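Journal club prep, shared notes

We agreed each person brings one worked example of a sequence with its structure written out as tokens. Mine is Methionine ABC transporter permease. I'm keeping it raw so we can talk through how to read the token line rather than staring at a rendered picture. Sequence first:
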Amino acid sequence: MNDTSDPKFWSDLVDVLLLGTGQTLYMVSLALIVTVIVGLPLGILLVGTERGGLFATPFGSRTAGRVINRVLDFIVNLGRSIPFIILMIAVIPFTRLVVGTFIGSTAAIVPLSLVAIPFFARMVEIALKEVDPGLTEAANSLGASRWQIVRKVLVPEALPSMLLGLATTVTSIINFSAMVGTVAGGGLGDVAFRYGYQRYSTIHIVAVIIIIFIIVQSLAAIATHFAKKYARTASDTGRAQAVAARADLRPVTSAE
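Then the structure, token by token:
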């Protein structure tokens, strides 16, 4: 039990919460960066390698495109199907190989990224499929390369939906980071486990819940704000802006 009449109790509580919050933000931030770096191109390839997609015939072979699409789809479904606690244990050898240990906040970034990447890739896939196919066809008719279409048409047009998907993804990462804390991963989950569960401190549990709620709501509000901003900008200018963007595309060269 914790003695709240102890003069050091409240100062220790603040120190513990600050350390846990810092570790949680550290884990979530780096895991989110890795998730975007890997998940964004993965989602683009999922859409692009479908029949009629931009990368449907890699190396001039439709069979290769179909195989790549099936493999990526399987990997994404597999990653989303495995419960996080099992995934975290299963990838311990890989985590140790990457960061040299499987204990601590840095080690927790590996399983957090692995569980978030398939989720975000599926979000990107859904967002890209909502883009008007006419924009892609128009850019293609202007001589844009496939990567130019991705960079200047698909990603900008799907950005509002992808931002909302990113907000959902970061919420999931924060939830999983709390689970990591129960197995020596640090963060607010560790605070809740060591002080709330093992020492029966209701104050620590309530404080952790409040902090996590604030973090999740703040990040969701930021993502929603920018999603609405980009969506409003697109609706204000409509297709005229898209045409203007495409006009900035340079012709395809042999190197592309």
